[in-house]
Amino acid sequence: MQTEILEPVGVRVTDVDLTHPDADLWPVLRALLAEHGVAVLPGQEIDDDAFLAFLQGFGELAFTAGETPLEGYPDLNLISNVGRETPPVSNFHVDTSYVAQPPAYTALRAVSIPAAGGATQFTNQYRAYETLPADLCETLEGRTITHVVTGVDLGPDDEAAADHPVFRPHPVTGRPALYLTSPKRCSAISGMSPAETEETVATLLAHSTRPENVLDHAWAPGDVVIWDNAAVLHRADHAGVVGDRVMHRGMVGAYAAG
Question: Which pTM was predicted?
Answer without folding.
Answer: 0.95
